[in-house]
Design brief:
This is Putative iron-regulated membrane protein. By secondary structure, the protein is of the alpha+beta class. It has 2 domains: 207 residues, no CATH class; 84 residues, no CATH class. 52% of the residues lie in helices and 10% in strands. Helix 5 crosses helix 7 and helix 7 crosses helix 12.
Length: 390
């Protein structure tokens, strides 16, 4: 029964698993590609503070007005590390989203972004394959999710099949070594069995953490299992705190500067990212998202402030990583685990090779199935000659 499940479930999900794993391997190094292909995202670190939001936005506004021929409203501003440019966003018209990149030390405009770069377009294409199998989201997401659930089953049944009935020198060699000097069928079999075993834990973790993004029921169950509670949208509630609408006028000039300075005082040092989203509706607050660590997102948290009084508004999203329970920490780390960036470059390299092995398993498995019981041409020729002689 175990072998039957492994075989037929593997055949049923093979093409989707191949595409999902191959695109996952490509996605792992997106930051490195962006770093080298988009020079406007980086600046030379200087031994002086960043300019406050009001100064950068004023410079961006003057630039945007020349470009658009009219004034624009900026929706947010984002600061990076000491070696990253800052950028501010605006929508020139409905359906368009532009960004102005600036040097955070002197306010010099570095780039006017009006659409995805070539590298971004490539990775958008890669992500559509990884998340949706290049299908419309409503169709592709459950297809990918179901295939990943099947893949988990095939990984477990494969491990059971791999486990020898008796441990001898011969079975140890077959289980842990690839016999490169064997015929191509033996090499293919070893690539499937041996590489599958070595990559089992990592591929299983990457797959399970990815199913979270395909099925809300799986997300809620996974979160409940880890934390004892479940919320919508991968742990983020849409019920944000609101500004007090009884105040009709701001109590402070340059509120973004005040909040920016408050955040910098509370979180000194180099931050991975600091984003200030400006209120648009009357009851919207200032929403400040802080990521202490560049290259990961699991320590990210959001603080909310009344748009008029600048009083901080309590929210579950304001909880820091250090204040979370063990289960909440594991759940918060899910995306970074899934894309292999949890511990930086070493785990990204590990995820890259594990994803490649994951992509190879349906291929080597199909070859094993296709040529099962079939003799090579040489063997068939010898057998035919023997039958003629006799």
């Amino acid at each position: 029964m175990n072998e039957w499940l492994h075989l037929w479930l593997g055949l049923a999900s093979g093409i989707v698993v191949f595409v999902v794993c191959l695109t996952a391997a490509l996605w792992v190094f997106r930051y490195e590609v962006w770093y080298f292909t988009e020079p406007y995202q980086r600046v030379e670190a200087q031994n002086k503070p960043f300019l406050p939001p009001s100064v950068l936005i004023a410079k961006a506004a003057a630039f945007a007005q020349r470009k658009e021929g009219k004034g624009v409203e900026f929706t947010s501003i984002t600061y990076g590390t000491s070696e990253k440019s800052a950028f501010t966003n605006y929508t020139p018209e409905k359906g368009k989203f532009y960004s102005v990149y600036l040097n955070p030390y002197d306010g010099r405009v570095l780039y006017h972004k009006t659409g995805p770069s070539t590298a971004e377009s490539f990775f958008i294409f890669v992500r559509s394959g990884h998340r949706f199998f290049f299908l419309p989201q409503k169709i592709g997401s459950p297809v990918v999710g179901a295939s990943c659930i099947i893949f988990v089953i095939t990984l477990i049944t494969g491990l059971i099949w791999w486990y020898p009935k008796k441990w001898t020198k011969s079975t140890r060699d077959k289980s842990f070594k690839i016999k490169w000097k064997g015929n191509w069928k033996r090499v293919n079999l070893d690539l499937h069995n041996v590489l599958g075993f070595y990559a089992f834990i990592v591929v299983l973790a990457l797959t399970i953490s990815g199913i979270v993004y395909s099925f809300d029921w799986f997300d809620r169950g996974y979160q409940w299992l880890l934390t004892g509670k479940a919320t919508a949208s991968h742990g983020h509630s849409d019920d944000h705190p609101h500004s007090d609408t009884t105040f009709t006028h701001p109590l402070y000039d340059q509120p973004a500067d005040i909040l920016w300075q408050r955040i910098r005082n509370d979180h000194p040092g180099d931050l991975g990212r600091l984003n200030i989203s400006f209120p648009e509706e009357a009851n919207d607050p200032y929403e400040i998202t802080i990521n202490p660590q560049d290259g990961t997102i699991y320590k990210t948290f959001t603080r909310f402030f009344d748009r008029n009084t600048l009083a901080e508004l309590p929210s579950e999203e304001s909880k820091k990583f250090e204040e979370m329970s063990t289960g909440e920490k594991l759940y918060a780390m899910n995306f970074d685990i899934h894309v292999g960036q949890i511990y930086g470059l070493p785990t990204r390299i590990l995820a890259f090779f594990a994803s490649l092995i994951g992509a190879s398993l349906p291929v080597t498995g199909f070859i094993i199935w296709w040529f099962r019981g079939k003799k090579s041409g040489k063997v068939k020729s010898v057998a035919a000659k023997r039958s003629v002689v006799t």
